[in-house]
Structure formats: C-alpha cells, structure tokens
Amino acid sequence: MNAFFYHLRPWQWYKNVLVFLPLFFGGYFFDTSSFLKTLFAFVLLCMLSSGNYMLNDTFDWKRDRYNKEKKRKMSRFALASSGTTLAVLSLFLSTQFFPLLFSGILFLLFILSFFYSFFLKHLLFLDVLLIAVNFVLRAVAGAFVFVKGAQPYIWISPWLIICTFFLALFLALGKRSTELTTQHQRFRPVLQYYTPELTKFLLMTITACLIMSYTLYSFLGEQPEMIFTLPFALYVIFSYLHFIFQNNPLTEKPYLLFQKPSFLSGIFLWIFVSFLILYF
C-alpha cells in the first residue's frame, strides 16, 4: 500500500489547481454549480496525473533502482496496469460528465505525458517546454468545463496562457538548475546537455518574460486594478529565485515551499488582493 501511495504522488497534485484559474478570474468562483464541476474536473486531473506518473515510473523502472528516493517499487507490471487503469478511467468519466472539448484536452494531456515519459524528457529544451505546455493545458481545461454552443463558457484570456506558460518554464528551469548540483546524470540523462551557465541564462530570460507578461496583464487586462497585485507577485518570484540561486533542494520539490511561512504569506496576499479586486 505504501508503494502504491508513493507512485500515485499525491504531493504533485497541487499542479492541477491550475484548473481553477478560469473559474477564479472569470468571476464564477461563488457559482455553486460551476465550482462543484470544476472540483470534479480537478479530481479527474489528479487521477490522470497519477496514472501518468505510474506509467513514467514504468519507463524509469530500471534507472530508479539506483535512486535512493525512488527505489520503493511496485512491480513493473503492477505499475503499468495501475497507471493505465487510472488514466483510462479518468478519460472515460470525463466523456460522461463533461463537454467533449474538456475530454479532448485530457486526452491530449495523456498523449503528451506518455511520449514525454517515453523519450521526449531526454531531449534538451523539449523537456522543459513540454512541462510548460502541460501546465497550460491544465489551466485551459478549466475553461472548457462548461460550454455554450461551440464556445467555452468561460472565456480563455491570452494572458492566462502566457503567464501560465512562463511560470511553468520558470519552475522547470529552476528545478534543472538545482538538479545540476544534486543529481547524477544516470537519474536524469537530459542533465548532461545542460550547463550551469546555460541554465542560469535561460532562467533569467524566462524570469524577465514572466515579470513582463504579468505586468502587462495587470494593467492591460479587463481589471487594471490588478496592478496592485504586482508587488506580491514580484515578492513570490524573487523569493523563489533566491531559493534557486542558493541551490536549495526545495526547488526540486516545489510543493515543499508551502512550508515556508514568508513564501506562503506572499502567495496568500496575492490571492487575497486579487480576490478583492475581482469580486468587490
């Protein structure tokens, strides 16, 4: 049971919170029906994610035997069968309870994750770019939970896509930067193509893009008052950047950053101020 729970990786489910972004920024957060449907969509995304993690562990089964953190193993067959079952079940349920567009996004997520685990994660740049696309699809999926005719019920803002994309790249490159100092290439072969200089350059470039895109969104979007959230967003970005340049292992496991009170306070204040602007 412990091995099964480990391979589900529930500590990684925080990524699926992105599905709530269209609901929150679209002004439907207090609509009970919309919220419950999005919550169910979150559950399906978590099921699909866990299925993909298990399939990924199937491909990495031999390599992970040398990794102290990942050597608690189910059999390869059990991983493959459990992962496939979870993924197929989530896709089936999505077709029964959600519009076809939402199911299509989940299917695309599954296909991209499968090929990412199979070989794309070993290719320079494609590894982090596909992570970013994966994040964007999670966010966009939330807009297709409800459909009126052929149009998404919640309008998909280009800013949602741009900011999510650069945020995901920022997190992925930060992780690669830390991994260069803490992991051997046999655990993540793509690291042999990265250098500290290249990673730092890409990281600073993407950080600038992230800050610029959020700044433009904050005063060019539908709610120009969002400019007041900029100091909190910058604080969170700078704090995370500080962890990266310290080679803090927390950047390999971003979910642990929520144990940092100051970092968590920055996120909470950003959400709180955004909430006041959008709903009052």
Number of strands: 2
Task: Examine the coordinates and then state which fold CATH places here, giving the name of the CATH topology of the largest domain.
Answer: Tetracycline Repressor, domain 2
The CATH class of the largest domain, by name, is: Mainly Alpha
Distance between the termini: 47 Å
Number of distinct helices: 10
Approximate strand percentage: under 5%
How many domains, as an integer? Answer: 2
Return Rg in Å: 19 Å
Key phrases:
280 residues, mainly alpha, Tetracycline Repressor, domain 2, 2 domains, 1% strand
List the helices and strands and how they pair.
Blueprint: H1 2-8, H2 21-25, H3 32-59, H4 76-97, H5 100-118, H6 126-141, E1 147-148, E2 151-152, H7 158-182, H8 196-220, H9 230-245, H10 261-279
Antiparallel strand pairs: 1-2
Helix pairs in contact: 3-4, 3-5, 4-5, 5-6, 6-7, 7-8, 8-9, 9-10
Quick structural overview:
With 280 residues, the protein is an all-alpha fold. It has helices spanning 2-8, 21-25, 32-59, 76-97, 100-118, 126-141, 158-182, 196-220, 230-245, 261-279, and strands spanning 147-148, 151-152. The protein has 2 domains: 1-156, Orthogonal Bundle (Tetracycline Repressor, domain 2), CATH 1.10.357; 157-280.
What does this protein look like?
By secondary structure, the chain is an all-alpha fold. The chain folds into two domains: 1-156, Tetracycline Repressor, domain 2 (Orthogonal Bundle), CATH 1.10.357; 157-280. Helices cover 65% and strands 1% of the residues. It has helices at 2-8, 21-25, 32-59, 76-97, 100-118, 126-141, 158-182, 196-220, 230-245, 261-279, and strands spanning 147-148, 151-152. The protein has a two-stranded antiparallel sheet. A hairpin with a 2-residue loop joins strand 1 (147-148) and strand 2. Helix 3 runs parallel beside helix 5 (100-118), helix 5 (100-118) runs antiparallel to helix 6 and helix 7 runs antiparallel to helix 8 (196-220). The radius of gyration is 19 Å and the shape is globular. The mean pLDDT is 89.
